Amino acid sequence: MIIAAVVGFTIGLLLKTATVVAQQNVSFLNGLPENFTSDGAIDVQYTSCKVITDRIVATAEGKFSRFCHGICNINETNVRLHRIETLLTADAENIKQRLFHIERVLLSGQIISKPAVGDGGAGPVDTKRLREIGTYNGTVSTAEDGPTGNGRPRAPTIAAFVYYWRVDAFWRLSFGAANGLVRSPPFYVSPRSYRISLSVHSDVVARTVRVAAVSAAGEYDAQLRWPFAHRLRLSVLDQTDFEPEDIVSRIWDDVRCAATAETVCASMEFRHDVLTYRRYAVGDAIVVKLTVFLQ
């Protein structure tokens, strides 16, 4: 269709050019003196026709170039519109999957907490995950040394220190704070040992969450072996008793954080929308778990 339009445009332009040239040549010949020879008239007529034709061809080329440039812009616009349509379709599918998950959660009756007393509720409900936090937070117990499930053999258990940190008002932190960064109070991983704090950084531009274990200056740093001597693992709890699936980092067995404060010992990063797939953010709060393998 575009080719037909271009051909029609070119033919029309050439016909118009021929008409103009013929009219100008007739007017030119009418103005010549009677004693002017035919050969001279032909030479002058040829020169005049060539000048006029060159000027009209140049004008046509300019118009044709602008016409083609417009076609290119249309094609580029179509590509951009198609890209926008693809992104909107992906977002709509993502929203649909989230709604399906919310429906499944509501139908299965998965509840970990009720509104706080100040919100008109009766306070948190007793669940297995809350009991886990209350029992093991800040203690040394046994933990599996490696990933399990999906057909993998059960990993051996070794002594490990676990620490749970509840990050309240997470979404308000993400969209309200100046830099979206919050840090836990520092703590020791065992008596007379290393001191660490946890941090959560929510980046609204990149739509990512970064959870990290950061070294903190401690009273016993001069007596300890550096860099940090223990392996670490970070988790964000799935706050449900119904087959929970925590967000878990790899086991950091190459920790290089030093005695200086603010050194990252271990970290993991994931997108904001991951938190909506399951009950990772409940009551505008997430729970971060740090496991320190002491052997």
From TrEMBL:
<dbReference type="Pfam" id="PF21355">
    <property type="entry name" value="TRAF-mep_MATH"/>
</dbReference>
<protein>
    <recommendedName>
        <fullName>TRAF1-6 MATH domain-containing protein</fullName>
    </recommendedName>
</protein>
<feature type="signal peptide">
    <location>
        <begin position="1"/>
        <end position="22"/>
    </location>
</feature>
<keyword id="KW-0732">Signal</keyword>
<dbReference type="InterPro" id="IPR049342">
    <property type="entry name" value="TRAF1-6_MATH_dom"/>
</dbReference>
<feature type="domain" description="TRAF1-6 MATH">
    <location>
        <begin position="182"/>
        <end position="254"/>
    </location>
</feature>
<dbReference type="InterPro" id="IPR008974">
    <property type="entry name" value="TRAF-like"/>
</dbReference>
